[in-house]
Amino acid sequence: MKELALHWKILIGMILGLLFGYVMKAMGLQDAVVDWIKPFGTIFINMLKMIAVPLVAVSLIVGLADLKDISKLSKLGGRTILFYLFTTACAVSLGLLLANFIKPGRFINEVSRERLLAGFAGQADEKIKLAEATKNQGPLQPIVDLVPDNFFGALTDMAVYCK
Questions:
Q1: Whole-number Å distance between alpha carbons of 60 and 77
Q2: The Cα angle at residue 90 between residues 46 and 92, in degrees rounded to 5
Q3: Half-sphere exposure for 132 (CA within 13 Å, toward CB)
Q4: What pTM did the predictor assign?
């Protein structure tokens, strides 16, 4: 029997995940999903974020080490910096152009804007307290806290705790 290709497995997994979420919501079990399933997704994302920085750093170091002629390093570095600055400028320009063209929020009248600002300004302390209370909720939160989301953040945490 022929095995399914990886992209089909991923699509099937996504569809099954959507169906599972819909069924759990229809059954009113959102809290069970948040308490018992979401932490594993958070752990997975934290692990991906934690490995990204060392992976990029090692890739750059290995790439530089594989250069045969060191004189090409300055030319390559200059090109890399110029390319980075160019793509950053393009991204910022595109963002500003689209924001000025589309003008998000232009349909909100002044009365609604003032009402929204007044309504949410008073709730800031309440939202902060709710966020702090939610942070400590969930039976699997201690397991989620074991996996840091930032490599350097984990190193600084270790340095603070080892003092």
A1: 11
A2: 65
A3: 5
A4: 0.50
User: pLDDT tens across 9-57, in order?
Assistant: 999 999 999 999 999 999 999 888 888 888 898 999 988 888 887 888 8
The sign one gets for the Cα dihedral 53, 54, 60, 63 is: negative
Torsion of CA 114, 117, 122, 126, to 10 degrees: 150
Q: Which residues contact 135 (CB under 8 A, 6 or more apart)?
A: 141
Do 39 and 144 contact (CB within 8 A), yes or no? yes
How many CA atoms lie within 13 Å of 24's alpha carbon, on the beta-carbon side? 16
Burial of 38 (0-12, 13-18, 19+ CB in 10 A): middle
